[in-house]
UniProtKB/TrEMBL annotation:
The keyword Transmembrane helix applies. The keyword Transmembrane applies. Its main location: membrane. InterPro entries: AA/rel_permease1, AminoAcid_Transporter. The chain crosses the membrane at residues 12-31, 47-71, 92-114, 120-144, 156-174, 194-213, 233-253, 273-296, 330-351, 357-377, 389-409, 415-435. Keywords: Membrane, Transmembrane, Transmembrane helix. It is a multi-pass membrane protein. This is Amino acid permease.
Amino acid sequence: MATDQKLNRTMTLVPAISTVMGTVIGAGVFYKASSVADATGSTSMSLFVWLVGGLISLAAGLTGAELAAALPHTGGMLVYIERAYGKLASYLLGWAQIIIYFPASIAAKGVIFGTQVANLLHWGSAAIIPSGIAALVSVALINMLGSKIAGQFQSITLFFKLIPLALIIIFGLLQPGGVDVSLFPVAPGHQVSGWAAAMGGGLLATMYAYDGWIHVGNIAGEMKNPTLDLPRAIAGGLLGIMFIYLLVNYAFLHALPFHAIQGNENTAMDAAQAIFGGFGGKLITIGILISIYGTLNGYTMTGMRLPYAMALENSLPFSKHLVKLNRFKIPYVAGIFELVVAIALMFVGGFDMLTDMLIFVIWLFYTLVFVAVFILRRKEPELVRPYRVPLYPIVPSIAIVGGVFIIVMTLMTQFQLAMIGVIATLAGLPLYFYMQKRQK
């Protein structure tokens, strides 16, 4: 994996924390509450899962930060995986991100965007996919106008992203009534198997809401002081996100009865209307839609550059086309490719199916990153590590255990979905060997 040492190192701590929080906070916090409630079956267990998901993500972030600080190159996780496991593993990660992670992320956001637009305007379910596709295409067109415009748009939507969150938290917690919360949540039935299944299903949902923290490693090469600021950005950003998520979900529980949240993808809209009334709820819902649109922009902006980067190394079929830039220096062919795959996935599954599949696949590689900390400490003890994960080996072990739990519980509860993700990832194997042979 080629690295770039010529980037301007201008990013400081505050923008890095904003990058973590801005990338992570999006559709998940508003629309995964229903899945978590459905999986856990109780208010206490729901909040407990959001807390545990945040702690696992924090352990994961602190662990991954050791590699990010030691290998502060643009490319992030691709660099770490290649260093520890070789080119093939790195290629499969890139392939999985191109075919599953970014397109499924974009498709899922398109589905939920279309769902909320259809509900807000009372258009009916037939309008969901067309509305979602319209959002995907319009965001892609914005990105085709150049990285400066796309970046400015991202900054604007980040501001709107925080408004509905703040209003829901402040006014939601002022609602009359209370929420019964136990410090020792137990899943329905009080059985270990039931508890594990509830935790597994709930964590898989929360991990989508927490996902995105590792992408700050992609800009390590542009940070003034990645040694200190990168781990601080990840830790500070994730702690802030966890606090916000707990408050938002507590506000949802204040505004709506628990059974009205379970399996209800319109939880955010219903809670907003319960808190602010009909007109106020619609305004908050519009703010949430802007938030989703901004997150969609961020994943589109990042996603189109990955096939371009791999094509620069002639690692993909039709690489000579994927490296083409438009007059704004944007990889437009790569962008169109990702857009087409995302639209196709919108017809394949709904929001939860898409997000569960992408989280399963990406956590396979996240777990490999956590194990890579141990591997590289043994293989490359001389590697300069300006930052070392605190409480080693406890913190990385927590991250590994959390990752293995998520993977195993997905295999146990959603085996067919997991296999689709595995097969799609392994489909990159023959392509890798074909491209290697062709290059020789």
